[in-house]
């Protein structure tokens, strides 16, 4: 599939693209949503949220519409202040909030045979598996990824037992706005 390169995008006009035949049909997708209450609720909730608000307001509205009571925030040590602000913001909105920093288990990079800048100094390793496991044990209903490194975001999503939404994507060069990197090319 090369939807990004398609000039017609007939699918956006109500016509099923023939490149999907035998792979993922319109009928198959409709059946999926009609048989999955949660997925249907997620789509329905998304359609109710105003598109003229900030991402944090979208997340907050989503939490309200879905009736979510317990939220987990997995965050990078480089976004500690943002993690604190988000935690307080959601708590002030009446949400039970649990936040876990990436280095919470105090694992040295050396313990995992990872590269170290200085062998003689403790270098905390990120632990997205541990973050997700803690969230699972705390029975969160939605997890928020805040500024994870590439790969760490993948592991956090993989091991979370509930849906994960990303609030901030780490991009140290473009102030956490990765689209700048390829839009300027």
Structural description of this entry:
The chain has helices at residues 26-35, 37-48, 55-66, 80-92, 128-137, 152-159, 179-183, and strands spanning 70-75, 96-101, 142-148, 164-169. The protein has a 4-stranded parallel sheet with strand order 2-1-3-4, sandwiched between helices. The longest helix has 13 residues, at 80-92. The chain has 2 domains: 16-48, no CATH class; 53-183, Diphthamide synthesis DPH1/DPH2 domain 1 (Rossmann fold, 3-Layer(aba) Sandwich). With 185 residues, it is α/β, with parallel strands linked by helices. The radius of gyration is 20 Å and the shape is globular. The two termini are 23 Å apart.
Question: In a nutshell, what does this entry contain?
Answer:
With 185 residues, the chain is α/β, with parallel strands linked by helices.
Amino-to-carboxy terminus distance: 23 Å
| Known CATH architecture of the largest domain | 3-Layer(aba) Sandwich
Alpha-carbon Rg, integer: 20 Å
Which sequence of strands runs across the widest sheet? 2-1-3-4
The name CATH uses for the topology of the largest domain is Rossmann fold
Profile the largest sheet. 4 strands, parallel
The secondary-structure class comes to alpha/beta
CATH homologous superfamily placement of the largest domain: Diphthamide synthesis DPH1/DPH2 domain 1
Q: What shape does the CA trace take?
A: globular
**Count of alpha and pi helical runs:** 7
Topology pattern, helix = H, strand = E:
HHHEHEHEHEH
Q: What's the mean pLDDT score?
A: 89
Give the fraction of residues assigned to helices: 25-40%
What oligomeric state is this?
single chain
Residues in β-strands, percent: 5-15%
CATH C-level of the largest domain: Alpha Beta
Strand count = 4
What are the segments in which pLDDT stays under 50 over at least 5 consecutive residues?
A: none
């Amino acid at each position: 599939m090369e939807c990004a390169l398609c000039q017609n995008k007939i699918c956006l006009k109500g016509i099923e693209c023939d490149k999907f035949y035998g792979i993922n049909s319109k009928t198959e997708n409709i059946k999926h949503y009609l048989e999955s209450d949660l997925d249907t609720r997620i789509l329905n909730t998304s359609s109710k949220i105003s598109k003229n608000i900030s991402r944090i307001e979208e997340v907050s509205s989503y939490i309200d519409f879905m009736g979510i009571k317990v939220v987990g925030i997995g965050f990078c040590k480089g976004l500690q202040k943002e993690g604190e602000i988000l935690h307080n913001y959601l708590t002030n909105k009446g949400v039970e909030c649990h936040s876990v920093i990436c280095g919470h288990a105090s694992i040295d990079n050396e313990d995992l045979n990872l590269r170290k800048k200085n062998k003689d100094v403790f270098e905390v390793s990120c632990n997205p598996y541990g973050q997700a496991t803690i969230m699972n044990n705390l029975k969160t209903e939605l997890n928020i990824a805040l500024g994870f490194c590439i790969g760490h975001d993948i592991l956090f999503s993989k091991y979370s037992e509930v849906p994960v939404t990303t609030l901030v994507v780490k991009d140290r060069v473009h102030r956490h706005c990765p689209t700048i990197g390829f839009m300027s090319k």
